[in-house]
UniProtKB/TrEMBL annotation:
<comment type="similarity">
    <text>Belongs to the ArsC family.</text>
</comment>
<dbReference type="InterPro" id="IPR036249">
    <property type="entry name" value="Thioredoxin-like_sf"/>
</dbReference>
<keyword id="KW-0560">Oxidoreductase</keyword>
<dbReference type="InterPro" id="IPR006659">
    <property type="entry name" value="Arsenate_reductase"/>
</dbReference>
<dbReference type="Pfam" id="PF03960">
    <property type="entry name" value="ArsC"/>
</dbReference>
<dbReference type="InterPro" id="IPR006660">
    <property type="entry name" value="Arsenate_reductase-like"/>
</dbReference>
<protein>
    <submittedName>
        <fullName>Arsenate reductase family protein</fullName>
    </submittedName>
</protein>
């Protein structure tokens, strides 16, 4: 199990606390310092069953700078979204947990963290 976090994020810290309380075996990825590649992001999106715009933090200042809220959310513009997230990892929603069964979740709630813990390979 891997969890992508920003240590300044309270939801990330809460997720880590819950994982620790449950004795989970996990790896932390500080995704702002170690951003995902386009290939990694595509793989995680596939595991999440989401599109890049679904995990984009539109309230970030860089989102406004890029004008991302006006971008089309379709297959033609999907590569542009991926490129923006890779170049600006702060735009990626967090925390993201990749579970042992091949799924992933945006673990912003205790329930989502527990679901990742319950995933079986």
């Amino acid at each position: 199990m891997e969890i992508w976090i920003n240590p300044a994020c309270s939801k990330c810290r809460s997720a880590l606390t819950l994982l620790d309380a449950e004795g989970a075996d996990y790896t932390v990825r500080y995704y702002l310092q170690d951003p995902p590649t386009a290939t990694e992001l595509e793989a995680v999106l596939g595991r999440l069953g989401l599109e890049p715009w679904d995990i984009t933090r539109l309230g970030e200042p860089v989102a406004a700078e890029l004008g991302i809220t006006s971008w089309a959310r379709d297959a033609t513009n999907r590569p542009q979204w991926i490129e923006a997230l890779v170049a600006n990892p702060k735009l990626i929603q967090r925390p993201i947990i990749t579970a042992e069964d091949g799924t992933a979740s945006v673990a912003r709630t205790p329930e989502a963290v527990r679901a990742a813990l319950d995933a079986k390979p």
